[in-house]
Amino acid sequence: MTSKIKSFSELKELQEKIKAARDSRQQRITICVGTGCLAHGAMSVADAFREELDRRGLSVKIDFRKTGCHGFCERGPMVILAPENIFYQHVGVSDVGEIIEKTLLKGEIIDNLLYANPQTGEKYVKEDEVPFYKRQTRTVFGMNSKVDPKKMEDYLAVDGYSALAKALKMKPGEIIREVVTANLRGRGGGGFPAGRKWEETSKAAGTPKYVICNADEGDPGAYMDRSLLEGNPHLVLEGMIIGAYAIGSNEGYIYVRNEYPLAVENINIAIKQAREAGLLGENILGSGFSFDLKVNRGGGAFVCGESSALFASLEGRAGEPRAKYVHATEKGLYDKPTNLNNVETWANVPFIINNGGDWYAGIGTDRSKGTKIFSLVGKINNTGLVEVPMGTKLREIVFDIGGGILNNRKFKAIQTGGPSGGCIPEAYLDMPVDYDELTKVGSMMGSGGMIVMDEGTCMVDLARYFTNFLANESCGKCVPCREGVQRMKEILVDITEGKGREGDIELLESLASSIKDGALCALGTSAPNPVLSTIRYFRDEYEAHIKEKRCPAGVCKALITYSVDSGKCTGCTLCAKVCPVGAATGEKKQAHKIDSDKCTRCGACKESCQFDAIIVR
Amino acid sequence: MVNLTIDNKKIQAEEGQTLLDVARQNGIVVPTLCHHESLEPSGSCRLCSVEVGEGSRTKVVTSCLYPVAEGLVVQTGSERVMNVRRTVIQLLLARAPESEQLFQMAENMGISPEPRFKASEDGNKCVLCRLCVRTCEKIVGVSAIGFSSRGPQKNVCTPFHEPSNVCIGCGACSYVCPTGQIEMHTSPAGDVRTIWGRDFKMAACKVCGRYFAPEDQLQYISGRTGVPLEELMVCSSCR
Question: Cα separation of A517 and A91, whole Å?
Fold first, then answer.
């Protein structure tokens, strides 16, 4: 454990000491034990490495590091061997001996552990050659692969807390000016300029002032905040301490959902370490500035990510929002001036302080600066977390970094911004991604979640799914959100069940506009987005469901039938074997049939058919 | 003083006032359901929505919460506002089709039910205006009722739907309820009041002998005010 660091020079000395000790060990094995890789068994692989290194007496010579998420979750567990940065994917316990024997000791490459491009088959040896990483700019997230989140020494070794030391020598106003110059916008979704928020809070009357980190990420498919907090908690802490100093706050909270146990664990460890090192608490680094914070675990209500509902929850009340005609910067937590930013926003701060606001403003587009971490999921080859400069084209994210659509199917749409974001069709793939461009096409930046859909997705069914999620997550305080979103859901369910009526689309539109105008908080006002954007770009699918009682994507069970293309069917009998209700029948080597009355439209026959002979209409 | 315009009328207001208060003071009718002058605004029914701003930069806000500001331009009956109100009423009519009060309100506003919304058949007239919960907490001070669940399932109830130990049977929640959802019954003899699934023994006036208030309520008042219970056992007519 680090003893108390009492001054800026002591911090510098400590950083240099740790770096020197690391440099003496040239070789390093890094394994990702982020949540995604853990699910693939990364911890057993890590244990196997530790044992094997110990057994061979290599532990002293080799720097072995268990880090947080590297982003390429599709390919976990992942192992990187430095200094060459050899990238091995899908590593199992049985591969450990071979990696040490061949690659570590003899420098040989193990071919079958290399990443192969799913489309071309081409293989890559080094991490930065892999297309997924090559096109990214991993300013914030890239640090994850360099540090063990449970060891503060690791963070200090990459010059961690240097930005804090620099900031404490500046005047609070100067720090705020850097953040304003950087034009850092809130990464939680709203995109409000962080510098302006800091300025407003710093000027607001009343004490104490609070600084809060919103780690209540709850969007289905989005996990960048989780991975940052799990993988590099000190980065988030450093950002918060700098913010607190700039704003004039001595108290803070990290509101993190309890469903993120590793994030809770790692941030608590980091806080303890920072306190012991004198980076939190009284008289930080001898500067005279004091700041401390607490972790508050949220119960996982989606609405608690909304600032005023989050305050209510932190205060120990039900997580209901309130109208924000008076900003939280003036009256937030306990009605005191409060600065709330999300995990990713705070994580950007040390980089701005270290490199300057102008440097930061040099990245990105006119009105959206810096990089953004996107969570790329759905029907895509390279599922994972992707960090790119603002303004990167959707096509580049989906096809170059994401590796295109799974099973070479056709791209249909991408849903951005979480459940209340919108669906963007193919025509906009060359759109640069930033706050304003996404809003223009009826979607939003939101948390940065991106869900890729292929031609097998029914857009009405998709709207139903998200609307259902939002109806259930509505806190129920205001009428338009509680009742209105529920009614939208009911109409969508009807349409997907073949019970849609003429006028439903118009009713959905008018309901949506009343909800947008009338709802109390951002959950409600953005809840109509999935419905509105799918009507806007896929109106024909709605009409097919309502007028022709047909689901063009072949998804809505009430509207489709399964049959056999007798020309393609070879009579292999597989469909008859897998059909759970005996609807698929036929003689060997003769075309089979499906009894539509018995068929439950489970799709097992279509999935099993090797000859593409099952027709869905 | 603050100068603003509501429905093209120049109006002066005091700083800190809400748009709803100012509008009403100036004879402008703004409907509300969850508003009560004795309680802090909650902003949950959204009926009092108005449009503020000018040109293309306008937004719909809740007038019961929105503070007046110098130069503010307000429309209380714009198309956007009326859409929100119509939708709110139609949504509530579907939720509580058996509430006569709600129907009356809709009729006065010239709004008919939206047939596409499936009318609830559970006989529940509650529109979750929260007046009862807020009254119980802020006025009575006992918090015997609250909310459970969220979203469309949200409902007003006693904790765990069990008879509450802290309820004093005062009936304030029932009086304040705008839809007639909270029922309160009194036995034919008048000696027992039933509310929220619990029977309350009524106290008889020492002078006229008439049953006038639940014993629990008198005890609560005595405890809060320090007035001996004996003194409270006289009904208001005999005092």
Answer: 51
